Amino acid sequence: MKSLPHTGWWHPWQTHALQQAVDRIVGIIQNDPHKERTDAIITRWLKRHLQWLGAGVNLERLNSLVEDKDMLAEKLESWAKRERQEGRQEGRQEGRQEGRQETSRDIARKLIALGALSDAQIAEATGLTETDIGAMRRDTSPGR
C-alpha cells in the first residue's frame, strides 16, 4: 500500500472531522435540485479519489453517498485505525533501529577507549563502518 499524502487538510486521526465533511456533502446533495445525478457524480469521484490515495477501502458496494453514508463512515474509520496502527508500528521499528545504532556507537566508543582493537576489528564487532570508527576515534582523541 502506498503511503497516504498528508496534505494538511486531513490526517487519519481526524475521523470526526472527516465524518462532518461527509455529512456536509450529503446535505449539499440533498438540497441540490438534481440530487440523484449529483449524488452519483460525487460518489463516483469519492470512490476514485480514495482508490487513488491508496486507502485500501473496499467501496464496491457504495452506490450512493446519501444512502450509504454510514457504511462510508465505517470504512473510513477502519482506514483511519489501520493508518494509526501502521504509523505506530513504523515508529516502533524506527525507534528500535535508532536504539541498536546508538548501542553500537556506545560499544565502539568503549572499545576505542580500551585502545586494544583496530578500527577494522571494532567495525566488525559493532556493525559500523571503518569510516564511522575513524571519525569516532578522532572525536574522542585527547585534545578534543
- Gap from first CA to last CA: 48 Å
How many domains, in number, for the residues? 1
Tell me the fraction of residues in β-strands, as a range: under 5%
Rough shape? rod-shaped
Structural classification: mainly alpha
Number of strands: 0
Q: How many H/I helices?
A: 5
Give the mean pLDDT: 84
Q: Percentage of helical residues?
A: over 70%
The topology string of helices and strands comes to: HHHHH
Keywords:
single chain, about 70% helix, mainly alpha, Transposase/invertase (TIGR01784 family), disordered N terminus
What does this molecule look like?
The chain has 144 residues and is an all-alpha fold. It has one domain. It has helices spanning 15-31, 35-53, 69-114, 119-126, 130-140. α4 (119-126) packs across α5 (130-140). The longest helix has 46 residues, at 69-114.
How is this fold's topology laid out?
Elements: H1 15-31, H2 35-53, H3 69-114, H4 119-126, H5 130-140
Helix pairs in contact: 1-2, 1-3, 3-4, 3-5, 4-5
